[in-house]
């Protein structure tokens, strides 16, 4: 029996017709794919109708509850322990080649639990998969480079996971958006999962790699990144200390980018406030 592939797209304030991922999924030829839309939108959309028209499953989150909760909600409604779930952002240039390669490798590699393609950013660098390191992950220079499987790490989008992985596992819902993928892969490495780099390339436009128009827009983004990152770091005191060091480093970087020295203090003080209040939660909505 062929595996069922559950292609999950998380939308935020975007219609299905405007989503690059959704439009590309409509073109994919594979009868074993079931598309699920997890809608985190806080503005009215007609995504429910579009899902009905395309015979897709629509899951309304009732507002922007974050990525982890959206993933967990979807996992709770999938009644299949033998299928494959594939996580997608709404702006991923997914291709037929990706699904053809994934289907082949899933069939030939029964012992592999998690699959990830090579993903290039708009700057021509490879961002996924990579080797996990605390301050800066080690990126591949070429798509054919070999990864240390004990340090295997990847981004959420285009990561395919056998559903048996989630039998006794759910995403950390205290992490709102950032570090969801890093935390997942760190956990899976500790469980001894088997990973595979797919022999296919995806080109992705990373919004975080594009400079924001103003320092205020950039700071709004950091107000989500900082608490998420510190949750990820909170597994030990030394790691949390190193996390604060990295947050301060972000402040220095953006102070130089925007010629605004206040960034350094803003990042440091916000990080300390998060820790002191023991409320390491991202804001309830993207700003």
From the structure provided, what is the oligomeric state, counting identical versus distinct chains? Answer: single chain
Report the helical percentage.
25-40%
N/C terminus separation: 45 Å
Percent in strands: 15-25%
How many independent structural domains? 2
Treating each run of at least 4 consecutive H or I residues as one helix, how many helices? 8
Number of strands: 11
Looking at the structure, the CATH topology of the largest domain is: Spore Coat Polysaccharide Biosynthesis Protein SpsA, Chain A
Low-confidence stretches: 281-287
Overall pLDDT score:
92
Topology pattern, helix = H, strand = E: EHEHEHEHEEEEEEHEHHH
Could you describe the largest sheet, including whether it forms a barrel?
Answer: 8 strands, mixed
**Radius of gyration, whole Å:** 19 Å
Q: Which class of secondary structure composition applies to the elements?
A: alpha/beta
CATH class membership of the largest domain = Alpha Beta
CATH architecture group name of the largest domain: Alpha-Beta Complex
Q: Assign an overall shape.
A: globular
Keywords: Transferase
InterPro entries: Glyco_trans_2-like, Nucleotide-diphossugar_trans
GO molecular function, one term: transferase activity
Domain Glycosyltransferase 2-like: 8-169
């Amino acid at each position: 029996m062929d595996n069922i592939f559950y292609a999950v797209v998380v939308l935020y304030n975007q219609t299905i017709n405007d989503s690059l991922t959704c439009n590309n999924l409509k073109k994919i030829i594979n009868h074993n794919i079931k598309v699920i839309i997890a809608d985190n939108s806080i503005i009215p959309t007609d995504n429910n109708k579009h899902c009905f028209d395309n015979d897709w499953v629509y899951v309304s989150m009732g507002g922007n509850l974050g990525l982890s909760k959206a993933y967990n909600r979807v996992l709770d409604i999938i009644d299949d322990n033998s299928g494959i779930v594939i996580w997608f952002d709404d702006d991923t240039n997914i291709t037929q080649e990706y699904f053809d390669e994934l289907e082949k490798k899933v069939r030939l590699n029964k012992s592999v639990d998690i699959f990830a393609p090579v993903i290039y950013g708009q700057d021509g660098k490879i961002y996924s998969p990579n080797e996990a390191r605390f301050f800066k992950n080690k990126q591949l220079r070429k798509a054919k480079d070999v990864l240390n499987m004990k340090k295997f790490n990847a981004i959420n989008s285009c990561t395919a996971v056998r559903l048996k992985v989630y039998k006794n596992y759910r995403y950390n819902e205290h992490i709102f958006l950032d570090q969801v993928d890093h935390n997942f892969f760190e956990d899976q490495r500790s469980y001894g999962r088997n990973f595979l780099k797919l022999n296919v390339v995806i080109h992705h436009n990373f919004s975080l790699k594009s400079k924001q128009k103003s320092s205020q827009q950039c700071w709004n983004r950091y107000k989500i990144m900082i608490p998420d990152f510190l949750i990820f770091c909170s597994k030990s005191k030394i790691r949390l200390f190193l996390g604060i060091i990295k947050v301060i480093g972000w402040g220095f970087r953006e102070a130089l980018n925007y010629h605004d020295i206040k960034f350094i203090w803003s990042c440091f003080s916000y990080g300390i406030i998060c820790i002191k209040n023991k409320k390491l939660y991202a804001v309830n909505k993207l700003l």
